[in-house]
Specification:
Largest sheet: 7 strands, antiparallel
Mean pLDDT: 92
GO molecular function: peptidase activity
Number of domains: 2
Protein name: Putative cysteine protease
CATH architecture of the largest domain: Roll
Structural class: alpha+beta
Pfam families: Bact_transglu_N, Transglut_core
CATH topology of the largest domain: C8orf32 fold
Number of helices: 6
Shape: globular
Helix content: 10-25%
GO biological process, one term: proteolysis
Keywords: Hydrolase, Protease
Strand content: 35-45%
Radius of gyration: 20 Å
Length: 301
């Protein structure tokens, strides 16, 4: 399935900004089930410096610097992607989760060894004991890793309340565990903290989810949003994604932008600016099925 994603971020400042430096994780990455057909980022005002590089995790990172006075900043990213379904084996026939941990220390298995970084605590995901104990309920001794992870995903979906007003991007894992409520970022962080606490390699995934309007209604432009979920490395299968917000293994409607240890590694847009005072932020995202020709690859601007 092919999609066109448009992500518009606009800052309006109370006072003039004289200089800003920003980095963006807005261009989708290539994965075994996703191909980025074309992607372009437009920045207004025109940046004095603009470049793209690949970070440690393989993400496409755009850096830009605006060195002229401005009262507003608008960043528009447009990408075309093609996503194929995820085909998984029978959950009960995957290796026991303890065997998956052992494989992380097999010196002859480069993929598994490289994933060991995703067993460590990260700035926003400490090894929270409550999260570990919560995950351990699903990970009984010798239980197949895919079966156990599906169970954990389903429990988070059932036992945590989706509440956009309850957390911010910096809400600690311990607070989310205590209150049992949050948003997609929080649910991914909870799962990852618990999995890493058990020694399992788990990473944070940032992207988009196609949403469809109720039957008979027109889809509102700009009404979509960024989404987040988590991924677990399963021996001989690879990284498998899990979306606890919707209790599903991501298929064609999930588009991956970036992967990392936690949200901090994959923030869609962040930076520093001089001046500005207070500011208003508006974000509009559209994920539409694509029938026309793909957007040509262009350098960041």
């Amino acid at each position: 399935m092919k999609f066109r994603i448009q992500h518009v971020t606009r800052y309006e400042y109370a006072e003039t900004v004289s200089l800003c430096h920003s980095i963006a994780h807005l261009k989708p990455i290539q994965t075994r089930r996703q191909q980025c057909l074309g992607s372009v980022i437009r920045v207004d005002p025109w940046p004095a410096v603009s470049r793209e590089h690949e970070d440690f995790f393989g993400n496409r990172v755009n850096y830009f610097s605006i060195q002229q006075a401005h009262d507003a900043l608008e960043v528009t990213a447009q990408s075309d992607v093609e996503v194929t379904p995820c085909v998984l084996p029978e959950a009960s026939k995957t290796p026991a989760w303890e065997r998956a941990i052992e494989r992380l220390y097999d010196k002859g298995d480069g993929l598994m060894i490289d994933a060991r970084i995703f067993t460590l605590p990260s700035p926003l995901i400490p090894l929270d004991p409550d999260a570990r104990n919560y995950a351990a309920i699903s990970f009984e001794p010798d239980r197949p890793i895919l079966e156990a992870t599906l169970d954990l995903m389903g429990r988070i979906y059932s036992e945590f309340e989706y509440d956009p007003a309850s957390t911010t991007v910096t809400t600690p894992v311990a607070e989310v565990m205590a209150n049992r409520r949050g948003v997609c970022q929080d649910f991914a962080h909870i799962a990852i903290s618990g999995l890493r606490g058990l020694g399992i390699a788990a990473r944070y995934v940032s992207g988009y989810l196609e949403t469809l309007p109720p039957p008979g209604q027109v889809k509102l432009q700009g009404a979509d949003a960024s989404h987040a979920w988590f991924s677990v490395l399963i021996p001989d299968i690879g990284w498998v994604d899990f979306d606890p917000t919707n209790d599903q293994v991501p298929q064609e409607q999930h588009i991956t932008t970036a992967i990392g240890r936690d949200f901090q590694d994959v923030t869609p847009l962040r930076g520093i600016f001089y001046g500005g005072g207070t500011h208003d932020l508006r974000v509009a995202v559209d994920v539409d099925r694509l029938e026309s020709q793909p957007t040509p690859e262009m350098p960041a601007r």
